[in-house]
């Protein structure tokens, strides 16, 4: 067994202390319950920085590379204190205790799964799959065990909401794997806290999910994520970002929403690869051989993701018709599609003109447009509008709104590119603002014309 596997196993053992927190909730007073919940983690943190010396076997077991320089187990202390912070939120505030247990073991056992996968095959995709798989199983088990322990001490119901448990475990595993792919191992406390707060939000939304939908979402998104990585249309972080967004879209939105999103991911990725060598010669090709990273995927999809979550929160938490958020979602996806098509196809043609002055500019100039690119963008928006019409109960006018959103997004993207891109915001910021403008257009138009 390698040293990294042993260390991951040791951290997993510390993470298992989370199962003591549900039992602590059974103590008579809130103060005593709080002390009992956080004490195991605080003690471990204190031992790591005060008692365990650099010449001990425990130090060798838990030490991360940076710990050797300081002679203290700061990595162990930070991990334990992050767990203690979440335990405090669980006991004193409204973070569900079973969810807390699930979060801690997702990160702890996910890391172990990743290290074990590395011993089988030294490939980052295989290792990430190990993280997600083991983290997911641990997350499900942690929530179930936490629920049963809390019920045994009389501080909760024994019934397990299996669909919600599966949804939270899968979401947590995907988010943790994504963060781990862009951060260092020493940043696990940040990963744990981020996943904890996100799953807390999802729990409070109380989404109406079914086990069947969650399982189908897992199967579909993992398969498509692997294909996107195998075809080099996305980097590993980009693939994980797309998988997470697709999973949440299926579970919280539905398969019609997912159809629009996956069409953008699929056709957008293929359009990037189209005549790539020629784009490379013209200086307009995407970096990394066209494989889109997490920043690019998020910039084009973050507005749509917020729309999905908002739709899941309405009308129970937000007194707004969910259909309003559907148009915001569809508009944002249409804008992302038009931007991608217009730049990837339009950039192959000569004589682009700056959208603000119509003067000729070099291919690849921010804000430069060609009529071929405009047509390609309109086709992209039309594809999304057509899918919306086929999968959702919307009128012809509703499809027209989505088409309009795509065109607005394309225009806003070009205007921002010609004016502020590079000096005020970067390309990813421009993409996000363009999709936001399209989403707001969709929501505003349906309100004004009364399509709700």
Automatic annotation (TrEMBL):
Coiled coil: none annotated. The lineage of its organism: Archaea, Methanobacteriati, Methanobacteriota, Stenosarchaea group, Halobacteria. The keyword Nucleus does not apply. It is a multi-pass membrane protein. Signal peptide: none annotated. The keyword Transmembrane applies. It holds the Pfam family DUF92. It is found in: Membrane. Keywords: Membrane, Transmembrane, Transmembrane helix. It comes from Haloarcula vallismortis ATCC 29715. This is Integral membrane protein. GO terms for cellular component: membrane. The chain crosses the membrane at residues 33-52, 73-91, 97-113, 125-144, 164-183, 190-205, 211-231, 243-267, 297-313, 325-349, 369-389, 401-420, 432-451. Belongs to the TMEM19 family.
């Amino acid at each position: 067994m390698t040293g990294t596997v042993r260390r991951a196993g040791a951290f997993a053992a510390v993470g298992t202390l989370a199962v003591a927190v549900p039992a602590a909730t059974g103590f008579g007073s809130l103060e005593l319950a709080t002390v009992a919940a956080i004490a195991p983690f605080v003690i471990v943190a204190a031992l790591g920085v005060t008692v365990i010396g650099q010449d001990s076997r425990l130090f060798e077991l838990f030490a991360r590379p940076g710990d050797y320089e300081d002679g203290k187990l700061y990595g162990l202390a930070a991990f334990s204190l992050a767990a203690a912070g979440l335990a405090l939120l669980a006991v004193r505030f409204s973070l569900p205790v079973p969810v807390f247990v699930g979060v801690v073991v997702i990160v702890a056992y996910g890391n172990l799964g990743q290290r074990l996968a590395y011993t089988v095959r030294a490939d980052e995709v295989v290792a990430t799959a190990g993280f997600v798989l083991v983290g997911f199983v641990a997350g499900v088990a942690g929530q179930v065990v936490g629920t049963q322990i809390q019920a045994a001490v009389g501080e909760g119901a024994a019934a397990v909401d299996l669909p919600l448990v599966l949804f939270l475990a899968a979401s947590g595993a995907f988010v943790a794997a994504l963060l781990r792919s862009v951060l260092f191992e020493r940043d696990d406390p940040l990963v744990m806290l981020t996943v904890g707060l996100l799953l807390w939000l999802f729990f409070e939304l109380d989404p109406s999910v079914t086990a069947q939908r969650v399982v189908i979402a897992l199967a579909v998104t993992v398969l498509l994520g692997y294909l996107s990585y195998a075809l080099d249309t996305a980097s590993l972080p980009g693939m994980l970002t797309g998988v997470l967004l697709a999973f949440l879209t299926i579970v919280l939105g539905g398969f019609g929403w997912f159809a629009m999103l996956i069409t953008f991911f699929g056709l957008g990725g293929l359009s990037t690869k189209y005549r790539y060598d020629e784009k490379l010669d013209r200086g307009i090709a995407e970096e990394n051989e066209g494989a889109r990273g997490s920043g690019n995927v998020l910039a084009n999809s973050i507005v749509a993701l917020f729309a999905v979550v908002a739709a899941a929160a309405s009308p129970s938490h937000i007194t707004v018709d969910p259909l309003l958020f559907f148009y915001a979602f569809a508009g944002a996806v249409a804008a992302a599609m038009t931007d991608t098509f217009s730049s990837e196809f339009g950039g192959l043609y000569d004589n682009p003109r700056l959208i603000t002055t119509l003067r000729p500019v070099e291919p690849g100039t921010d804000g430069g447009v060609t009529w071929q690119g405009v047509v390609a963008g309109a086709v992209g928006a039309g594809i999304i509008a057509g899918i919306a019409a086929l999968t959702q109960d919307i009128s012809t006018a509703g499809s027209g709104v989505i088409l309009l959103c795509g065109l607005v997004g394309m225009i806003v993207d070009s205007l921002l590119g010609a004016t502020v891109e590079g000096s005020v915001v970067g390309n990813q910021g421009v993409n996000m603002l363009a999709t936001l403008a399209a989403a707001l257009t969709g929501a505003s138009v349906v309100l004004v014309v009364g399509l709700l």
